[in-house]
Backbone:
């Protein structure tokens, strides 16, 4: 299975994130997206990475240090729903979300609609005129369907005059495969 949600999101990011861009990894996790954003935005760019779990921040810090990218990111132990406290409206070019739980971590700690929806709303306010969001929705388990359904409902109501929302679920794969969603601002 050559395509999965992560490969599609990373391909999308490689095509769109340019040197000098300001990016947010809203859910740092193990740091793979943060590292990719640091490489793509380059030395002239800026990356903020959020997570509520100290384990995730430390894992991200270690990966960035290993790859020589530790000076390119600011790691923030806080909820993605507080991103607006760290960046001004209209100042962010790219925001990346992975909804679910920390891979290899405590599965009782996971994203939920209660914080994810305000984070998405705030993310739209943070976007620069050329900005975009990418989401990877991991679901299943005791609360994942609830969050997935809330996210899809919210996404279907994003203003179509201002944004295009593209969801790419894997319809023929078993076991609740994660899927990517992209939110792009419409050209004026």
Residues:
């Amino acid at each position: 299975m050559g395509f999965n949600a992560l490969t599609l999101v990373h391909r999308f990011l490689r095509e769109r994130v340019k040197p000098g861009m300001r990016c947010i990894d809203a859910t740092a996790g193990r740091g793979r997206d943060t590292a990719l954003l640091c490489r793509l935005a380059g030395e002239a760019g800026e990356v903020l990475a959020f997570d509520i779990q100290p384990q995730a921040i430390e894992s991200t810090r270690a990966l960035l240090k290993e790859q020589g990218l530790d000076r390119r990111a600011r790691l923030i132990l806080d909820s993605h729903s507080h991103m607006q406290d760290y960046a001004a409206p209209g100042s962010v070019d790219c925001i990346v979300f992975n909804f679910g739980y920390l891979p290899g971590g405590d599965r009782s700690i996971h994203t939920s609609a209660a914080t994810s929806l305000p984070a998405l709303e705030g993310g739209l306010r943070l976007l620069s005129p050329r900005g975009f969001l990418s989401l990877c929705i991991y679901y299943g388990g005791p609360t994942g369907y609830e969050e997935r359904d809330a996210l899809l409902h919210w996404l279907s109501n994003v203003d179509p005059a201002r944004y295009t929302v593209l969801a790419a679920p894997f319809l023929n794969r078993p076991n609740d495969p994660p899927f990517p969603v992209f939110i792009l601002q419409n050209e004026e």
Remarks:
- Strands lie at 22-25, 46-51, 73-77, 92-99, 127-137, 163-167, 179-185.
